[in-house]
Q: What sequence folds into this?
């Protein structure tokens, strides 16, 4: 009888062990490696893949292996929607890592109806109000807060202090401001209402928007229009490639304005592509640059070499690190949900909403993360950088909640 | 009854031991690691050229030899690589990065073939040339539209090189995951 018991226990233990080993958590990822934002998307995709492998190597989700399904949708909204349906219906993923603003916002009603946690590379402020989009999350300071921070930084640190603008300041002139954006791109247009609101708060004179396509190779007519208006400051809301084109044209045509750039247009490639035209340009950073020193750098480098040895290190960008930030945040939420026995859509959403000053992203140069059931803004800290001697360097961190305490609540979902 | 059970348990242990002690190289050691090589590129579908911005689809098949020198079954878990077309002699421009998650087993001591089909079109390629690959296009002083048309004209005879680079195949084995980088060019240089 005793032997029978031992044999039975052995079988049960073997079964449990094989079940535990075989368990996996599926994670879907939409990437743009061939489309209009592939100048930044390809590198982010590499980072996502490398980070997932790292987290698998250190135990996955409390012992469950992460199985990543990563697909290029070429920045085409219909393809994103179709791929999402495959994630939901066939791959049965626990959550989705999204990419663009257009597809994330187009999918938002669906993911919220499906109760599918969706962590996106679009930091659109519209995705941060849980009353409207409870299952959408972002892994960087939202575009609207960032844009407000950039224009505020320029106003306080450049317009008020730089000798370049002394004459106009002394005359009591209002700074003149224009936007260079792809007016058909939800990404580029997402923070425009917020930055114009902030420009109004700060007393700027706002000129007409200039359409610059995400694939623009020539922006001379837009620069001439901005020059005609007498712009002192230009907001660039596109990605690196077209931003560098606009900077070069502005330099060549002697626009004379300063430049502030959204986070997907500002990286290690900007000085490479823009040359001297990019010197002094102000941009926003979500985390450490690939070339920076940061606590997790060795890990990031090790996995670039392990998984993508064929990609030259000098071609890697901050986007790789952003991929790590994205996966790191998703893994933490899934671990918490799993610990609570709720590794499902509502469980992962609830887990995200328990983040309170979570320091996990600091080692990648990210911010402390606080998310609540009523506010999905990742942080109120805006990290501002400038191209100095051909290299983007952090120059300030602005806490927009502390700076504008009476307005912060009203800016939710802006 | 008790004796019979004891014999059965011992037999199970012996059998388990025999299975665990398979002969042959381990897939995790250098000599036993799988190797992935590009055998050839095939055109799986092509359509008459229509000037841009209209889309002309292009399907390419990449046939890889997957050699498993180990004494163990290995499972391909995922594979990704970057496809580049030759834009000027010896100068390649990246076109796409196919990634697949097929679970396919390769038996011990065999060489099998695995085909990856990538479907693209002239408008997608143009976008890649205008954005991600724009610095290279500008450096080589090329006109993206003319370059794509030239590729479509010549591809039937493989009149330019097609390169596979940044390749990484991840195999799952009972001894752990194995990462296999690979690259290759077609037509192969004579």
A:
């Amino acid at each position: 009888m005793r032997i029978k018991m031992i044999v039975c226990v052995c079988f049960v233990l073997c079964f449990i062990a094989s079940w535990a080993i075989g368990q996996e958590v599926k994670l879907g990822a939409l990437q743009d490696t061939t489309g209009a934002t592939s100048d930044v998307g390809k590198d982010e995709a590499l980072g996502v893949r490398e980070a997932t492998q790292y987290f698998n190597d250190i135990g996955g989700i409390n012992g469950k292996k992460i199985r990543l399904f990563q697909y290029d949708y070429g920045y085409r909204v219909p393809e994103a929607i179709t791929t999402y349906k495959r994630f939901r219906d066939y791959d049965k993923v626990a959550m989705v890592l999204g990419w663009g603003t257009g597809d994330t916002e187009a999918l938002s009603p669906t993911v919220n109806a499906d109760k599918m946690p969706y962590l996106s590379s679009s930091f659109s402020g519209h995705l941060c109000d849980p009353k409207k989009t409870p299952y959408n999350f972002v892994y960087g300071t939202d575009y609207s807060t960032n844009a407000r921070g950039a224009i505020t930084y320029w106003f306080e640190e450049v317009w008020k202090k730089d000798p370049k603008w002394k004459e106009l300041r002394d005359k009591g002139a209002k700074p003149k401001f224009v936007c260079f954006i792809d007016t058909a791109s939800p990404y580029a247009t997402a923070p425009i209402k917020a930055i114009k609101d902030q420009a109004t708060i700060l007393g700027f004179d706002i000129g007409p928007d200039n359409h610059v396509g995400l694939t623009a190779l020539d922006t001379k007519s837009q620069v001439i229009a901005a020059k005609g208006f007498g712009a002192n400051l230009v907001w660039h809301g596109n990605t690196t490639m077209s931003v560098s084109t606009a900077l070069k044209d502005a330099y060549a045509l002697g626009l004379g304005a300063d430049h502030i750039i959204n986070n997907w247009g500002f990286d290690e490639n900007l000085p490479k592509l823009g040359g001297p035209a990019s010197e002094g340009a102000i941009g926003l950073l979500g985390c450490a640059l690939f070339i920076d020193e940061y606590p997790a750098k060795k890990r990031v480098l090790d996995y670039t070499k392990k998984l993508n040895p064929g990609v030259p290190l000098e071609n890697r960008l901050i986007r790789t690190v952003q991929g790590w930030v994205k996966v790191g945040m998703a893994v933490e939420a899934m671990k918490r949900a799993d610990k609570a026995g709720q590794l499902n859509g509502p469980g992962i959403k609830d887990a995200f909403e328990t983040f309170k000053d979570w320091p996990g992203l600091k080692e990648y140069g990210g911010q402390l993360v606080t998310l609540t059931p009523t506010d999905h803004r990742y942080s109120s800290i805006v990290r501002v950088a400038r191209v100095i001697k051909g290299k983007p360097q952090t120059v300030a961190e602005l806490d927009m909640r502390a700076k504008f305490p009476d307005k912060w609540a009203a800016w939710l979902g802006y | 009854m008790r004796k019979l059970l004891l014999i059965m348990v011992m037999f199970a242990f012996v059998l388990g031991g025999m299975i665990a002690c398979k002969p042959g190289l381990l897939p995790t050691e250098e000599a036993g690691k799988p190797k992935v090589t590009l055998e050839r590129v095939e055109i799986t579908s092509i359509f008459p050229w229509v000037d841009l911005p209209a889309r002309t689809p292009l399907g390419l098949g990449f046939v890889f030899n997957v050699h498993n020198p180990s004494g163990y079954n290995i499972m391909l878990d995922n594979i990704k690589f970057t496809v580049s077309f030759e834009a000027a002699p010896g100068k390649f421009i990246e076109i796409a990065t196919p990634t697949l998650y097929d679970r396919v087993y390769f038996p011990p001591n065999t060489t099998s073939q695995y085909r990856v089909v990538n479907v693209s079109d002239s408008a997608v390629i143009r976008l890649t040339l205008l954005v991600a690959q724009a610095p290279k296009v500008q450096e080589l002083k090329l006109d993206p539209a003319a370059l794509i048309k030239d590729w479509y004209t010549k591809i039937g005879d493989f009149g330019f090189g097609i390169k596979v680079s940044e390749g990484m195949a991840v195999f799952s084995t009972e001894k752990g995951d194995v990462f296999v980088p690979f690259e290759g060019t077609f037509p192969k240089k004579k």
Summary: The longest helix of chain A spans residues 318-339. Chain A touches chain B through 36 residues (CB under 8 Å).
